[in-house]
Amino acid sequence: MQIAYREVKTELQFEMVDNLDFAAHMHEDIEVMYVIHGHGIACCDGKKYPLTDNSFFVAFPNQVHRYMESS
Asked: Rounded to whole angstroms, how far apart are CA atoms 65 and 62?
């Protein structure tokens, strides 16, 4: 039997913010953004995705992304 091994981080980080302005960045982990209330824009791979109440955005590992407020 051949066995594959891959390390999986089990630490979950949670943060609540009031300001959605984040400069372009990337990381080795997946990032899930959930908007409780308000609106903004997620930018990834040259595309803009609207963020509204109760919406999700997922950035995958090593994917450059940013968030900004919308008016």
From this structure: 9
Distances (CA, A) of 18 to 2, 36, 40: 48, 10, 11
Beta carbons within 8 Å of 54's beta carbon, 6+ residues apart: 34, 35, 36
Check residues 70 and 47 and name the one with the higher pLDDT: 47
Greater confidence, 14 or 31? 31
**Both tokens of residue 66?**
């940013």
Q: Which residues of 19-54 are buried (b: 16+ CB within 10 A; e: fewer)?
A: ebeeeeeeeeeebebebeeeebebbbeeeeeebeee
Rounded Cα–Cα distance for residues 18 and 65 (Å)? 19
